[in-house]
Amino acid sequence: MSKRALKKYLTDLSKEEIEEQILDLYQRFPVVKEYYDFVFNPKEDKLIQEAKIKISNEYFPLKRKKAKARRSVAQKYIKHFIKLGVATYLIADLMLYNLEIAQSFSGEKKVPDTFYVSMKNSFSEAVNFIAINGMLSDFKERIVKIYNTIENQEWYNIQEFSRVLDSIE
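RE: above sequence
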């Protein structure tokens, strides 16, 4: 159904019928419930904190012995928070947190080359997101610190990280 057809359909319904449909959607689909719960009670800080705990658990698990170190876990939360409309400042903070915790992990463990490629992608997405949303001055210190850690840990693809930084200056 197109957006235009949906608008026409909705204009033909009474207020009570629209309310019934929205309540039905709320009960049937968890994403609709989550959306309305967020809209009417946006506990953004709590959501971000929960995401940070789960991301941290990817690298430093509490219940299992071996870390999974999956970038996809953080990406899932970031995309979800963007869809929900969480404050861009909090999303940027989460993006950088993901890089920082991954660097802590790589400082302690031997990681495969694919890890570095994945982190370059995360770094690029974070820096671009921060630049597009006009928050470079707020996060520049953390970005530089992340880059310095990359240098100190001697990541093999440091030139690619340099190019990302050069692209925003």
